[in-house]
Structure formats: C-alpha cells, structure tokens
Amino acid sequence: MNMFYSVCLVLVILSMLGLLYRVWKGPSTPDRLIALDAIGVMLISAIALLSILFDTPFFIDVILLIAIMSFIGTVSFSKFIERGEIIERGSDR
Q: Which of 13, 23, 26, 89 could form a Cys-Cys staple with 31, CB 3.0–4.6 A?
C-alpha cells in the first residue's frame, strides 16, 4: 500500500511542475492566479500523502495553515487584479 501512496505523491509533484510552467508562461494574469491556487491545493495533497506515508498526524496542522494562507493569497490577488489595490483607503482622510 505504501507503493501506491508513493506513486500518488510522485504524480502530484509532477502535476505541480506542470502548474509551475503555467505560472511562468501563462497567457494572462488570471490564468497564473488559477495555477497558483491549484499549486496550493496540490501542496496540501502532497503533505497529506506524506502524512499517510510517515503515519503521523503532525502534518495536519501544516495542512490547515497552508490552506488558510492559500485562501487569503487567492482572495488578495483576485482583489488586486479586479481593482488594482488590496487595501482600500477611504476618501474621507
């Protein structure tokens, strides 16, 4: 069974390499943003597979931290692409 998880881990890492190519050569900024989000999901998958292979629950905290940071990064980049700024300053100051 460990061989199955090892093969899955290799396939996830290869998928991440393909996504890195899309981030580097993406035709547009939204395509690059989607690729970065997918890399976050693949990273979470890779760490979950490592947690299964090493038979330890320690990596669950790391998975949650990466998921939160990936979500915040995706929302921030999306807002920057849409409006051109991340933190809106009020005009009353």
A: 26
